[in-house]
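Purpose: get a first structural picture of the assembly so the mutagenesis plan has something to point at.
Setup: two entries, given in the order below. No constraints added.
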Amino acid sequence: MKKKNVALGLWLCAALMSAGCARKNAQSASPVASGFGAAVVESSGGKQIATAGTTLPQPLVVQVNDEQGAAVAGALVQFYGPAGTSFDPPQMLTDSSGQATTNVMLGSMAGRYQLMATTLTKAHKTVDLKMEEIALDYQRAWGQTLDDKYCSRCHSPESTPERVSNYDNLAVKPHPFTEGDTLNKISDADLLAIISHGGPALNKSPLMPPYGYTLSKAEMQALIAYIRTISDPPYQTSGMVYAKK
Amino acid sequence: MQSSNSALSWWRKFISDPVRTFGAVSVVLLALLAIAPAKNYFSEWRHYQNGYLRLIRNRGDAVTLQRHVQPGIQQIWHPELGVTDRCTSCHVGLKEASLADVSTQPYRKHPVIPHAIDQFGCVMCHRGQGAATTVEEAHSSTLAWEQPLLPARYIQSGCGQCHQKPLDSTPVLNQGRATLARYGCVQCHTVKSPDGTIIKATQDAPALSHVADKTTREWVYAWLKDPQAYAVSTTMPNFQLKDEEARDISAFLMANSTPVVGDTAPETAHKAADPAAGGSLYGEAFCSSCHAVQNAAGNLVGGNVGPELTHIGNKVKPDWLRAWVRNPRVYDAATEMPHYRFNDQQLEVMEGFLLAKKDADLLANVHLDTATPDQIAHGKSLVTEYGCSSCHEISGIKRPENFAPELTRIGSKPVSQLVFLERMPHTLPDYIAAKIRQPRAFGSGLKMPQYTLSLAQIDSLTTALLAQNERAQTLPPALMAPNAPASHYQPAGKAGQLMTDLACFSCHAINGRGGDMAPDLTWEGSSVQRQWLEEFFKNPNTLRPALIRRMPKFNLTNDEITTLTDYIMTVYQTPAFDRDSLPATGYSPTEVEQGKQLFYSKYACQSCHIVDAKVDKGYIGPTLTAVGSRMTGAWVYHWLKDPQLLRPGTVEPNRHMGDEDAKALTAFLMMQKGSVKSQGAKK
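Result (structure tokens, whole complex):
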């Protein structure tokens, strides 16, 4: 009798648990893939910079290709990121042009977020694509604003009709702030000296004017923190790197 | 049976001895007494404090870090702010700069912010329960608490409680506040700053009292049904009207409209103008500084001061358009559109160019029968019901007051007073965001329309609204950082009328009033030479080749130019120095040569400015080839000494220049007189 009760209890328990699981599954039911590719490649949306905890300005777009490099429609793409990252939607089938698009919200901590998009091959092997996005904290977001106002017109070679870059007009080319190979070798103190006293402070070009009487020390430190964060390759203490474990 | 009997007899024997009984009771009592300290010993915060000590044990600066650790529950207490925060009991390393590499919580150091953590505590910005000492109670909303931790994307709402003035470092909050004013939220909802001022809308919706002069009923119908189909960038929301509702409202607006004398041109046949000429006139008049047009790739090109013109040909009646471009102030005295003095031929060209901007399919399916009096009456009641006159002036209908709930304290509304949708998290930020994203989902009888906003805009709006809370309203006055009061500056006399007519304030700011597209003119009279200003009004040439938004040519008469120049030169002078204290010419060649050396070597001004158009290339700042015939010597000198003093926020760095250097540079720059030919050349 007792044994029967225990068995009944166990059965009930299992039934309840599976019911719970079933509901969860129903919520995130995977669409059924009708196509299978050989590789995931990035179309756009990698290497973006956003304030921690916010949605990236551009959606993440990846494309699934077959062995010949042709786009595959109907392949199931799943997106993964470190804890705190969310994708809308987290998984989807590629459209007729072989692309899958998702909106990414980064976690609440500043740092580099390593995201992953995976798809299945015909042989049911997983192939993946890794991408990196950068989340800024308060100080670094402030640095980004200051960069936009004071620095990027010369330091960024990117030019748009609305905002023409001055990079090409300078006899001595400034270092783009992503140029980690050069900038990572300059210490924080030296960067501060260049910003506040101009290029000649470190025997560099006088085309870089001094901002020590224009920006506060906190503003210059915010700029340096931002420069460190976006450098490529990364600066050794440019902040946390988050990846899915 | 036997065994229970023997146990009973053992018990009787045990309690028969009072000493033994006393001993046993004491042991039980001791055990009970030990529960409280044990509970304390095994508490969560102690667990985390011990974890912290283990974490720092092997670090290089372990001794310093350990010295900073204070055992026990820590508390930041600011009764005047309603802050009782014990968060630092577990978040031990918040203030340790050397823990930059630690990513595990609760031991991460706090990111750099401009305030000390002890100054305001944690819940000011992060919300949550400051007084709680367990992880769950502090961070989540539980039965006893309803304030969970604020998601990071809304964190700038914390700044907005004290800072009403926009800060460089709070872009999300600034965007949210700008959206609140620009999208007309504050037209229906009252939102007050803590100092009691009501936040005003920054964009006035057009008045509809004379709408029949401007457009057709068919367009009004299609617009009401889906404003974004006509113009993707419009701030007009979609009221999700039924066909009959749009039919009746359009019928009422047309029937209610009264004609304006002179706003339709009686003239001549509208000839098909040369589209190429139209394009270049549109460009020369710099229409795109204010108006956007969608290009073939679907991107909007142009400013957002005026309405988008992608399909303007579908909307306006040709007669009205001609009269509007001739003088917009006839139809709308308060418009931000300048009164260009176009001649008849230019008007024709412009009209033809704009009318060609249309999408043949836009109104193809709109067929409306003549309106019946019933429909018009129904339309009127719908206009009242939907609160159209909160934003639009409509003759015969009063602007409703308190049409929608006041949002001054929405950021501290108790969750228990909110009605949530199914399956949505029961928190205030989620509620506000969902209300903005899909207001009609909260009930079929609701009137709030559907806005077309990006995710970032919704987040920023939510941030701005969360800053509207009880704490912000009851701050100690010393902590308030109020916004500058709105300026209602209006220049006097004939020049003042002229400036209104030309809508100078749409682009330029003077004495705190006006736009930020073009330079601030508060001290323009000290800055430029009279002759240059007159020439500039006649033919505005390019000062900053890198900018695509420029001063248009208004075709002013000589009298008008004299009036404006007189006023600007006399009234807009800085008290900081005398305009005529340095000459415009006659500097010694040695000084000029010295200035040239300084310009090119010591200060390397050529990285941003052009003096010699053959050699120099920098074009961040204005071109200086003719600066000696444009600016006053005194302005150049004082600008070199401290640019931010003359124009706060300018990008030109302050070089902390000595008097001698500034004088030599002024001499060099004032000798740059330019040639008339090179001035006229445009990039």
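The longest strand of chain B covers residues 76-78.
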